[in-house]
Amino acid sequence: MRPFAYAAPRTLGQAVEALADGGPGTRVLAGGTTLYDLMKLQIEKPRSVVDISRISELTRITTSGRELVFGAGARMADVAEDPVVRRDYPALSESLWRAASQQLRNMATVGGNLLQRTRCSYFRGGPAFPCNKREPGSGCSAIDGIDRHHALFGASDACIATYPGDWAIALLAFDATVDVVGPDGQRTIELADLHLEPGNTPEREHTLAADEIIVRIRVPKTAAGRGSTYHKIRDRESYAFALTAAAVGLTVSRRGRIEECRIALGGVATRPWRVPAAEQTLIGARLTEDTARRAGEVAFEGAKVGHHNGFRRELGIRTVTDALLIARTRATR
Ligand code: FAD
Ligand code: SF4
Q1: Is 120 left (phi over 0), alpha (psi -120 to 50) or beta?
Q2: Span 5-54: which CATH code?
Q3: Which among 28, 119, 167 is the best mutation to test ligand 1's pocket, defined by most ligand atoms within 8 Å of the CB?
Q4: Does ligand 2 have an atom closer than 6 angstroms to the CB of 70?
Q5: Which residue among 11, 13, 72, 97 has its CA within the 20 to 30 Å range from the CA of 52?
């Protein structure tokens, strides 16, 4: 790891100042579970880091108002365990429970989780493997390499890496927004607009400016929260990234018809991936194994498979199907 300067401000204002003063080579440090990892691998080489973990206002969780509000510095474990989140938004809680390990969740924050970088093994593999995301213009080792974990949606000729996070998928399904602050003040970004597809610039992964800090994440309250789940399929039941995942939320009328339907896919795209066409197939319908499967098939229309990842198309269809059936039991309780 290279030497770097370290600042530990106590207020948000001081943090914004420290980030601006540090210049382009400065990074925000929250739990450090991704940033330090990438620094050790020499993928991130910040000249200085601004540690935001001592800023108490960033850790607040508020569930009593018209929306859920999560301070960016709240720990993954604290949000996952919050009783209101568990009862009224199981998809949000499960997306965190099913991520990483208990030790990591105790340390990592919900803001840092949004900005984690891809787990493409060529990206992390060092200079022996050309990677446009790590070294723009060097090429992509995955396209003709082992692409078992790579994207079925949103890829480009420059990069096919999947977005690895779970939390952002559940947030996307529930129309979350992200408040950020920088030297020019505060602004709000729709979660749907936070992450970028790679296009010709895979090194650019999100729309946050280098001198902006995520302050909080807001989720509008909806009845579909209770009828929700985050269903994640992985190579082992803990401590593994998604092969496929689906965040689903439903409301069902007294006559058994679906009134509201939200579906977002994880583990299969270059960014969190909502599938409105699949949601539409279910509005006004009864949820049966057949209609759930049909929604899964629509969700995966247009999937582009490579050499080793074709099995994840069918796996993804089944993931959506099962997620919808789990959500139905919660929505009709
Ligand atoms: P940091 O490491 O401190 O920061 C991460 C990035 O976000 C950095 O670029 C940092 O500059 C930026 N950042 C942090 N906070 C802010 C902010 N408030 N404003 C602006 N920028 C900010 N994640 C999953 O979703 N699912 C998994 O299954 C999973 N498995 C994992 C397994 C392992 C072994 C490991 C090491 C990680 C795994 N993760 C998984 C990723 C883990 O959840 C993230 O490392 C963690 O959430 C990052 O949060 P952090 O607070 O530690 O962020
Ligand atoms: Fe790099 Fe993206 Fe190719 Fe992986 S898929 S090697 S991250 S350019």
Answers
A1: beta
A2: 3.30.43.10
A3: 28
A4: no
A5: 97
